[in-house]
Amino acid sequence: MKLHVQIKMNEALFLRDPESSELGKNILKHSIQLIHKSGFEAFTFKKLAEDIGTTEAGIYRYFENKHKLLLYLTAWYWGWLEFQISFHTNNIDDPTVKLKRIITLLATAVEDDEQTNYINESLLHQIIISEGSKAFLTKQVEEDNKQHFFKPYKDLCAVVGNIILECNLAYKYPRSLASTIVEMAHFQNFFMNNLPSLTDFGNTKEESEIISFLNDLVFAGLNKS
Amino acid sequence: MKLHVQIKMNEALFLRDPESSELGKNILKHSIQLIHKSGFEAFTFKKLAEDIGTTEAGIYRYFENKHKLLLYLTAWYWGWLEFQISFHTNNIDDPTVKLKRIITLLATAVEDDEQTNYINESLLHQIIISEGSKAFLTKQVEEDNKQHFFKPYKDLCAVVGNIILECNLAYKYPRSLASTIVEMAHFQNFFMNNLPSLTDFGNTKEESEIISFLNDLVFAGLNKS
DNA sequence: TTTTTATAATAGTATTACTATCATTCAAAA
DNA sequence: TTTTGAATGATAGTAATACTATTATAAAAA
């Protein structure tokens, strides 16, 4: 039995549900490929349309603009990751072990999970590392937030924050530590590969080292106070 | 006696040195105002030209494109901040005290320092918080890095990393901890003001709390190992 | 005075980010 | 079976963006 993960998406993110048609799925699939290849700035609906073999207008029937598409992809990713996390930590009782497991999941390159053939999770993970912050680093954050576009991200951070609290009820900054872990799992990866002198892993470029760093950072903080 | 801080800029960042003319200084001044007001995405050289009262072509004589201008502004900011840090920690011997001082400087809103009347450091600080990451989160990071456009940022992180080492010679991740501190000083500020549930400071919105969080995070990590 | 240099004024191009219209297909409802 | 309607394809068109080029003019340096 293969359980099919269906991430429930905020309907305000799209005009027409991309998961409801072949064209829609192609939009998701090819946008991931294109953004991964050329970056979000160079990515346009025209290029995407050419890539798919449809027209620009066709894409616009699904997504209002490329920012909404990025919001969609990031929301999908965080939703998917939260599921992965809950799945892989399901049977773990010790919150410390749980938190370590989560750090590993956050900082490890994901392999494409064949469940959803129109979404390449591995590429999407890399997109989130380099482009993810651009989803909220805009003048419209407030509006986008009011429409709950960041809910999956905030939910995931809340999950992590709660486990942090379970590890140490007296710890004063569970939410900030959670967002720090999540952001740094990605940033240290980006730095390691692109600006290596900003990390201690420039030589090996091993994700395992990011994991060690985060574990060290987190558990020192939690055990102290 | 007023000492005039002159940040030495990488000449490959501009076509004509903006600090060498009135128009150039106006470009810096008004670009900071405009980017702060409307965000980097909505910012165009046309609007900037209208704002200054010159023409688009006039701007292009100074900067190749808006990405270079952003690189210039971020490089200026990090150079300026490194000077501020070295100035304000100059006479401090104890590395722990020094590091705390740096964390405070990183996380505190700067007041406009009248030295350079064409650069509003306070606005620039806010720009770095919301737009700074976009300087390196691009497909051209590698090229830009080869041209040393991120040197001021990397230098600052190196300074912080070295002080971390002074605090604890056995600590294994001084560079990564340094970049974490620098990034989080900004991200936690952005989150606090825009996505408050990702932090523990949503109610008070006090920078002092970010400082406490970072101090706690850093010194727990350093004293443990 | 001549020459250089910076700027202003104007024009023009390719691409981007859309919106609108109309014809076609194909499946479901009447 | 016909009708309807929803999704798509094809084509156009517009305003704004991201530039480049040309010429004239004014100010500063030689």
Describe the 3D structure.
The structure is a homodimer of 225-residue chains. By secondary structure, chain A is mainly α. The first copy, chain A, has one domain: Orthogonal Bundle (Tetracycline Repressor, domain 2). Helix content of chain A is 62%, strand content 0%. The first copy, chain A, has ten helices and no strands. Chain A has helices at residues 22-38, 45-52, 56-60, 66-88, 95-107, 121-131, 141-146, 151-167, 174-194, 207-224. In chain A, helix 4 (66-88) packs antiparallel against helix 5 (95-107), helix 5 (95-107) runs antiparallel to helix 10 (207-224) and helix 9 (174-194) packs antiparallel against helix 10. Chain A is globular and about 55 Å long. Chain A starts with 21 loop residues before the first helix and ends with a helix. The model of chain A has no long low-confidence stretch (mean pLDDT 94). At the A-B interface, helix 7, helix 8, helix 9 and helix 10 of A face helix 1, helix 7, helix 8, helix 9 and helix 10 of B. Chain A binds a DNA duplex (30 and 30 nucleotides) through helix 3.
List the helices and strands and how they pair.
2 copies of one chain form a homodimer.
Chain A: H1 22-38, H2 45-52, H3 56-60, H4 66-88, H5 95-107, H6 121-131, H7 141-146, H8 151-167, H9 174-194, H10 207-224
Helix pairs in contact in A: 1-2, 1-6, 4-5, 4-6, 4-8, 5-8, 5-10, 8-9, 9-10
The structure holds a DNA duplex (30 and 30 nucleotides).
Q: Which terms summarize this structure?
A:
homodimer; Tetracycline Repressor, domain 2; DNA-binding
